[in-house]
Amino acid sequence: MTIQTDYGMVEYGPEDLIVFSDGIFGFPKLTRYLLLRINEDEDDSMLLMVSVEDPNVIFVLINPFSLCPDYSPELAPEELACLQVTDSGELSYYVICVVKNDYLDNTVNLKCPLVINPKTRCGIQIILANTSYGYGHTLSSFSSITDSNDARSEE
Amino acid sequence: MLILRRKKNESLLIGENIRITVIECASDGVRLAIDAPKQISILREELSEAEQTNKISLTPDMNSVWKLQSILHNKKKPEKEDNT
Predict the structure, then answer these.
(1) Other C-beta atoms within 10 Å of A40: how many?
(2) Contacts B52 to A, Cβ<8 Å
(3) Taking the model in full, what pTM does it have?
(4) What residue in B sits closest to A103 (Cα-Cα)?
(5) Which of B75, B80, B82 to mutate to test the interface with A (most CBs of A within 10 A)?
C-alpha cells in the first residue's frame, strides 16, 4: 500500500502501522499511523507520524529521553493493561513537538506522551498526573540542547 | 470569577439547566456529579488542553523540521564539524 504525503510517496505494509485504537486527543477517528524517519541514516530520536487515513495529518515526534534523560512518565494500572504490559519499561515513549521557525521556540508536550508497545504496535496517548510536566516545554529549557550548541559555537 | 464553598451533597446551578453536586470530598480529590443537557460538552480541563496542543502541532513546515533534526543530530555528535 502507498500513501501520498506532502513529503513524498510512502510504501508500507500492515505490519508497519502503529494503531491507536482510541485515536489521539482531538483526533479520535484516526487510528492508524506510520512512523517515518526523516532521513534514512538517522536514529529514532525524531520521527514523523503520518495518518494513513488522512495524509494531511502529520506530527513530529521526539524521543523525550534525548531531551530530558530523567523523564519519568508514570502510567496508571489501567493504561498498562490497555497496552498489555505489566512493566512500563517495555514501552516506547514519544512526545509531540510544535515546530516553529526558530528551533529554540519549538515546544514539546511532555504531559501527554504517546506510549507504544513495540511488540504489538499498539499505542495510546495519555495525560500524566505528574504536575512537573507541561504541554509546551520550549527546547531552550533543556540543557542538553543549549549546552551542546553553545559548545559547538566555540569550535 | 465566582468562588464558592460547597459541602458534600450541596449543589451549584449554572444557567437554567446545569447542576453540579459535590458527591464526595477526599484528600486526593473531589467527586462531582454533573447534570447537563447532552449537547453541552463537559471535559476535564486537561483533556481540552491536550486536544488543543495536538491541534497546534499539526503538519509542520518541513524546512523547520529538517533544521530541528540537524540540531538534535549535532547534539549527539558534537565533535563532528561536518553536519551534512
Answers:
(1) 5
(2) 26
(3) 0.82
(4) B68
(5) B75
